[in-house]
Design brief:
The structure holds two protein chains of two kinds. The model of chain A has no long low-confidence stretch (mean pLDDT 88). Chain A is α+β, with helices and mostly antiparallel strands. Chain A contains eight helices and 20 strands. Chain A folds into two domains: 235 residues, P-loop containing nucleotide triphosphate hydrolases (Rossmann fold, 3-Layer(aba) Sandwich); 120 residues, Beta Barrel (OB fold (Dihydrolipoamide Acetyltransferase, E2P)). Chain A has a six-stranded mixed beta sheet, sandwiched between helices. By secondary structure, chain B is mainly alpha-helical. Chain B contains eleven helices and no strands. In chain B, helix 3 runs parallel beside helix 6 and helix 7 crosses helix 8. The C terminus of chain B is likely disordered. Classes of the chains: A alpha+beta, B mainly alpha. The interface between A and B is medium-sized, with 26 and 21 residues.
């Protein structure tokens, strides 16, 4: 099937927020266009307040778009209430029903849809087996640990066999170790059931670990959509380069352009970077980003690369981090992996060094 | 941490207040078993004759029945309306929300005698005949704020997304209320109902204006005070009322707490 599982077309959501006498319009989501394929693990990633949870609530039907239309399996959803949409949600704080036991929590959706008792029992049992909680079926949610509650919430949603499963920071309340384990488990579960997952998180590492594709959001807009490798290796904007992983940013003036490779003057040095789309013209000021692990340090007699001084040496076992001060630029972070044949802490504080990188690892950014 | 000792002066003050508050009630109960029509010491001996006479007085029994039916009906209606109001107030942001709460809570501060007179004037000008129904409607008005405030207090600590979760799983809004919200807040609803019941059952001022020819129990008791020989009857009825009201308030308070504190983990 080529039809997308979920499609957002020019979706905008405006909230009116009243503070005192002043009512102002807040754009929670602005002109959003997305296509999410069947069976995809799709993540909405962004800082809190970026509109990712609002997007999820729009798809679930708890909010109505101010403009635009949402399609689920090709069907327009504007007139479909949440209870009739082929989606289920795993809520941030699980939202388990405290007055019902685990089995009745999981069977809730089937009970509402009047699935026969015998089939209900069979499917509830299957769902609980899948999350390894079959022996907990008579417990109340308050008698379960956070991780177990999380699994019940997952079973309660999946038992209805939705077309799309929406997950709103489902691992946010768990401790780090459990979160890591659950990330792998969720990913495997998704592959096993083959249901489209739309996952909301502010944790970039979590997004990179689990997703097929990620949409990076900020201030109600989607900035870039891509698979984890593309987003990390070729960020298109300052925000994406900064939010996912760590980046060094440089500002320079364009001197020459040949194809996608752009030659820039940064301070007194001539350096190279790569443009992802149309390159800027000579004379323009441009911003580019390089990951700390994509930079090399060297000491050379020749006047090559960017000159700097080692400001700080931080040894963290697997790596050594150098903070290098460069004239008229913010301090630059360089990460050197400790490996075979590389001396840890090769350079000392105060030492003059030169910074090198490959042109394709320096990305010219839109802003 | 060591708790600071309760000062002995405070203790004395406390017991003084308790005695002043409860001595009359204690005397009432004491005299209801006293074998005399006059409420003076020394006591004349133990008797149950006043209670027996109560049970044989058909007018009084009718008044009790009127009061009970009226209290049941009005507190049921007040609880339903109060719950609806509470859901709106807690769940939705809308202009004039504070005014809505203030208007609904107004009967808390209006003297009942004024409310009674104004309702009497209104009903009279509308040509409505006075009966237990009119008194019952007035009781809905005065007990509604109590019901609403009790339910609001419960809903404030109630996560909204439980209703959303129910709807997400296929329930309609009413289905979500019926399957999730109401079962969870049920102790608070019962508490609200019982509080409304005691308010209606004890209420005299409004009922005396609006009840017409079917007196409620308080109205009937007041009318009996004109006959000195029936005084012990009134006293023993009052003793029963006091005891029942206190029991109901205690039960409702207990239910309210059961509803709020999470169940302790078993095992």
């Amino acid at each position: 099937m080529s039809e997308p599982a979920v499609e957002l077309r020019d979706v905008t959501k405006v909230f009116a927020s009243t503070r005192g006498d002043v009512t102002e319009e807040v754009y929670a989501v602005q002109d959003m266009n997305l296509e999410i394929a069947q069976g995809e693990f799709f993540t909405l990633l962004g800082p809190s307040g970026c509109g990712k949870t609002t997007t999820l609530r729009l798809i679930a039907g708890f909010e109505r778009p101010t403009r635009g239309e949402i399609f689920i399996q090709g069907r327009p959803m504007s007139k479909v209430p949440p209870n009739l949409r082929p989606v289920n949600t795993v809520f941030q704080n699980y939202a388990l029903f405290p007055h019902l036991n685990v089995a009745r929590n999981v069977g809730f959706g089937l009970e509402v849809r009047r699935v026969s008792r015998s089939e209900r029992e069979r499917r509830v049992h299957e769902a609980l087996e899948m999350v390894q909680l079959a022996e907990m079926s008579n417990r109340k949610p308050s008698q379960l640990s956070g991780g177990q509650q999380q699994r019940v919430a997952l079973a309660r949603a999946l038992v209805n066999q939705p077309a799309v499963l929406l997950l709103d920071e489902p691992l946010g309340a768990l401790d780090l170790k459990l979160r890591k384990a659950m990330q792998i488990e969720l990913k495997q579960l998704q592959a096993q059931v083959g249901i489209t997952f739309i996952y909301v998180t502010h944790d970039q590492e979590e997004a990179l670990t689990m997703s097929d594709r990620i949409a990076v959001m900020n201030k109600g807009r989607v900035l870039q959509v891509g698979d984890p490798v593309t987003l990390y290796e070729r960020p298109a904007s300052h925000f994406v380069a900064d939010f996912i992983g760590e980046s060094n940013f440089f500002r320079g003036v364009v001197e020459a352009v040949s194809g996608q490779v752009v030659e820039l003057r940064v301070g007194g040095a001539r350096v190279q970077a790569t443009a992802s789309d149309s390159p800027p013209s000579p004379g323009q000021e441009a911003l580019f980003a390089i990951r700390p692990e994509k930079m090399r340090l060297a000491v050379s007699e020749e006047d090559l690369g960017l000159h700097g001084t080692i400001q700080e040496v931080i040894y963290i076992g697997t790596d050594t981090r150098y903070i290098v001060s460069v004239e008229a630029q913010p301090p630059v972070a360089v990460r050197v992996q400790n490996g075979c044949g590389i001396a840890p802490q090769e350079y000392r504080r105060g030492e003059a060094v030169q910074l090198f990188w490959l042109p394709e690892d320096a990305h010219l950014l839109a802003d | 941490m060591e708790k600071s000792r309760f000062p002995s002066f405070g203790l004395l003050y406390y017991w003084l207040i308790v005695i002043i508050l409860f001595l009359p009630i204690f005397l009432l109960i004491l005299f209801s078993f006293n074998d005399s029509t006059r409420l003076v010491f020394p006591l004349r001996g133990f008797t149950l004759q006043w209670y027996r006479q109560l049970s044989e007085n058909s007018e009084l029994i009718r008044a009790v029945r009127t009061s009970i039916l009226l209290a049941l009906g009005s507190s049921f209606l007040a609880t339903v309306l109060g719950t609806m109001g509470a859901l709106v107030v807690v769940r939705y942001e809308f202009p004039g929300r504070n005014i809505f709460v203030a208007v609904a809570a107004l009967p808390l501060v209006i003297p009942y005698i004024i409310l009674g007179v104004s309702l009497l004037i209104m009903l009279h000008s509308l040509g409505v005949r006075l009966s237990a129904w009119t008194a019952g409607l007035a009781h809905v008005v005065i007990s509604l704020p109590y019901a609403m405030l009790v339910v609001i207090a419960r809903l404030v600590g109630f996560p909204q997304n439980l209703e959303e979760a129910a709807m997400d799983l296929g329930a309609t809004y009413w289905g979500a209320l019926r399957r999730v919200t109401i079962p969870i807040i049920f102790p608070a609803l019962t508490a609200a109902f019982l509080i409304c019941f005691t308010i209606s059952f004890d209420e005299f001022a409004i009922a005396s204006f609006l009840v017409g020819t079917q007196p409620t129990l308080p109205v009937y008791l007041y009318s009996q005070l004109r006959f000195p020989t029936r005084l012990p009857l009134v006293v023993s009825m009052a003793a029963i009322l006091m005891t029942a009201s206190m029991a109901i308030v205690l039960i409702s308070e207990w239910l309210r707490r059961v509803g709020q504190t999470p169940q302790p983990k078993k095992k």
